[in-house]
């Protein structure tokens, strides 16, 4: 197992991550370093495994688009409210997103990817 990359997310008010996967990798994860005490929005969402092409479409913004009417397939299958020092590790192919941060304070997290290298 090899750590392929990692990065820091500083998510201020209004920031979000639209649905995506980390294709080609094995495991992904996020560690929440700083979470506002009164976090509004900003939950971590896992989705059903629908077509990845939808995620890269410029028209597809799901419920991240103002005024968008939620469709049945838009609903996440699991939602997690981030807390400081919480670690989430998941298969890299699982579609996920982060809701809009409605808090006035920043949320800071560390994200990373692992890849399993097979030598046979
Ligand atoms: Fe991600």
Main sheet attributes: strand count, strand direction, barrel closure: 4 strands, antiparallel
Low-confidence stretches are: none
- End-to-end gap: 14 Å
Q: What small molecules does this complex bind?
A: fe (ii) ion
The chain-level mean pLDDT equals 84
What is the number of helical segments per DSSP (H or I, 4+ residues)? 1
Topology pattern, helix = H, strand = E: EEEEHEEEE
Strand order of the largest sheet: 1-8-3-6
Overall body shape:
globular
How helix-rich are the residues, as a percent range?
Answer: under 10%
Q: Approximately how much beta-strand content do the residues carry?
A: 35-45%
CA gyration radius, whole angstroms: 15 Å
What count of domains describes the coordinates?
1
Work out the oligomeric state of the chains in this entry: single chain
- Class in CATH? Mainly Beta
CATH H-level homologous superfamily name:
q2cbj1_9rhob like domain
For this structure, the CATH topology is: Jelly Rolls
**Structural class, from helix and strand content?**
mainly beta
Say how many strands there are. Answer: 8
**What's the CATH architecture name?**
Sandwich
What would your notes on this structure say?
- The chain is mostly beta strands.
- The chain has a single domain, classed as Jelly Rolls, CATH 2.60.120.620.
- The protein is about 5% helix and about 40% strand.
- It contains 1 helix and 8 strands.
- The strands form 2 sheets. Strands 1-8-3-6 form a 4-stranded antiparallel sheet, with no helix packed on it. The chain has a 4-stranded antiparallel sheet with strand order 2-7-4-5.
- The longest helix has 5 residues.
- The two termini are about 15 Å apart.
- The relative contact order is 0.46.
- The structure holds fe (ii) ion.
- The site of fe (ii) ion has 4 residues, from loops.
